[in-house]
From TrEMBL:
<keyword id="KW-0119">Carbohydrate metabolism</keyword>
<feature type="active site" description="Proton acceptor; for enolization step">
    <location>
        <position position="67"/>
    </location>
</feature>
<dbReference type="GO" id="GO:0005975">
    <property type="term" value="P:carbohydrate metabolic process"/>
</dbReference>
<dbReference type="InterPro" id="IPR006148">
    <property type="entry name" value="Glc/Gal-6P_isomerase"/>
</dbReference>
<protein>
    <recommendedName>
        <fullName>Glucosamine-6-phosphate deaminase</fullName>
        <ecNumber>3.5.99.6</ecNumber>
    </recommendedName>
</protein>
<comment type="pathway">
    <text>Amino-sugar metabolism; N-acetylneuraminate degradation; D-fructose 6-phosphate from N-acetylneuraminate: step 5/5.</text>
</comment>
<comment type="function">
    <text>Catalyzes the reversible isomerization-deamination of glucosamine 6-phosphate (GlcN6P) to form fructose 6-phosphate (Fru6P) and ammonium ion.</text>
</comment>
<dbReference type="GO" id="GO:0006043">
    <property type="term" value="P:glucosamine catabolic process"/>
</dbReference>
<dbReference type="InterPro" id="IPR037171">
    <property type="entry name" value="NagB/RpiA_transferase-like"/>
</dbReference>
<feature type="active site" description="For ring-opening step">
    <location>
        <position position="136"/>
    </location>
</feature>
<feature type="active site" description="Proton acceptor; for ring-opening step">
    <location>
        <position position="138"/>
    </location>
</feature>
<feature type="active site" description="For ring-opening step">
    <location>
        <position position="143"/>
    </location>
</feature>
<feature type="domain" description="Glucosamine/galactosamine-6-phosphate isomerase">
    <location>
        <begin position="11"/>
        <end position="229"/>
    </location>
</feature>
<dbReference type="Pfam" id="PF01182">
    <property type="entry name" value="Glucosamine_iso"/>
</dbReference>
<dbReference type="GO" id="GO:0004342">
    <property type="term" value="F:glucosamine-6-phosphate deaminase activity"/>
</dbReference>
<dbReference type="GO" id="GO:0042802">
    <property type="term" value="F:identical protein binding"/>
</dbReference>
<dbReference type="InterPro" id="IPR004547">
    <property type="entry name" value="Glucosamine6P_isomerase"/>
</dbReference>
């Protein structure tokens, strides 16, 4: 696992956007695993800025999102589908049919999880997976305790995750209790993984990911078993790590 320390959220986003653009330019049919949340928003903005300026084409790019809330309609402003179109897809030339996001309102949600897993299997895992990290070390919606061999599945969200995500909802009670997410084994199938972290609220999770045991108490620690992971973290996110290493 390679750690790239950067000074700020902006530098983290610039590094990530450059990395994604390199992939898109060297392989026009690249498959990208994408995340929602606050962390990658600026990265997506930079991709849009590049698209407007340099016309980098996404015509043949395929995307696979990590997760989606269960029970929220695709066109609901809090759905992850809505988020992705708002923050990226509406502003670049990716065809709608190349975009894949789990369907949170599928009538049989377990069947939907199986369909999504099969889809990712059919491409042999994504070429590049972008990840954020939860304050409790979750990746995707794989909360602490999730077995490492889990495939795309339905999860019950923890209080800490619901609290963290409530900033996007009018009321805490509106935050869904369940989601559909790529499993840890699904994420590990990715050929390359780029994990982004910024802010001191992530410092604990980053510390545990690098220095703690590889254990499902901290799902992100499993990334130490993958051959091709880059972590881009700003000064605040690595603050606990540095204390340990310097001291
Ligand atoms: C989002 C996702 C989550 C987030 C994580 C960090 O698709 O799967 O694991 O990456 O919760 O969220 P932010 O970036 O809002 O701190």
């Amino acid at each position: 696992m390679r750690l790239v320390k950067v000074r700020s959220h902006e530098e983290m986003s610039e590094f990530a956007a450059r990395h994604i653009l390199d992939k898109v330019k060297s392989n026009s049919k690249v498959s990208l695993g994408l995340a929602t949340g606050g962390t990658p928003v600026r990265t997506y903005e930079l991709l849009i800025e590049d698209y407007r300026k340099n016309h980098t084409s996404y015509e043949h790019v395929f995307t696979y999102n990590l997760d989606e809330y269960a029970g929220i309609a695709a066109d609901h402003p809090n759905s992850y589908r809505y988020f992705m179109f708002e923050h990226l897809f509406n502003h670049i030339n990716i065809p709608n049919e190349n975009v894949h996001i789990p369907r949170g309102t599928a009538s049989d949600i377990k069947k939907e999880a199986k369909r999504y897993e099969k889809l990712i299997d059919s491409i042999g895992g994504v070429d590049l997976q972008i990840l954020g990290i939860g304050e409790n070390g979750h990746i995707g919606f794989n909360e602490p305790g999730t077995p490492f061999d889990t495939r795309t599945h339905i999860v019950e969200l923890t209080e800490s995750t619901r609290q963290a995500n409530s900033r996007y909802f009018d009321e805490y009670s509106e935050v869904p209790k369940h989601a559909i997410t790529m499993g840890i084994a699904t994420i590990l199938k990715s050929k390359e993984i780029l994990l982004l972290a910024s802010g001191e609220q992530k410092a604990d999770a980053i510390y545990r990911m690098f220095e703690g045991a590889v254990s499902n108490d901290c799902p992100a620690s499993v990334l130490r078993t993958h051959q091709n992971v880059i972590v881009i973290a700003d000064e605040k996110a690595v603050s606990k790590l540095e204390k340990v290493r310097i001291g």
